[in-house]
């Protein structure tokens, strides 16, 4: 939150407070956390601070972690110059799902270096 906000009395539906985006540290341990709202302000000319435990838990997920499932590549025998459609099984061991962009995702075979004879 870059600037303050005003909370008028007698507003049963409250107001929405939006905080600035923050980067969650990669070493933050995945799990469920209970958030707490800490406030600091001025009420009728005097300083007022406190905290409000929030009833909504926040779940921190681990990032997607993709790995190839061994021996799942099909086909493993192809003919030079012929079209081929490969398939393989990929596993996500993270707790966050990933939407794979099919247009920018591809399969590539590493071409061995050519040997030149003198």
Structural features, described:
The structure is a single chain. The protein is mainly β. It contains no helices and six strands. It starts with 30 loop residues before the first strand and ends in a 26-residue tail after the last strand.
Write a concise synopsis of the structure shown.
The protein is mostly beta strands and 118 residues long. The protein is built from no helices and 6 strands.
Write the layout of secondary structure elements.
Layout: E1 31-33, E2 36-43, E3 46-53, E4 58-60, E5 66-68, E6 90-92
Fill in the keyword field for this structure.
rod-shaped, two-stranded antiparallel ribbon, two-stranded antiparallel sheet, single chain, 118 residues, mainly beta, 0% helix
SSE class: mainly beta
Share in β-strands: 15-25%
Give the strand line-up of the largest sheet: 1-4
Number of helical segments with 4 or more residues:
0
Shape: rod-shaped
Radius of gyration, Cα only, in angstroms? 27 Å
* Assembly of the depicted chains: single chain
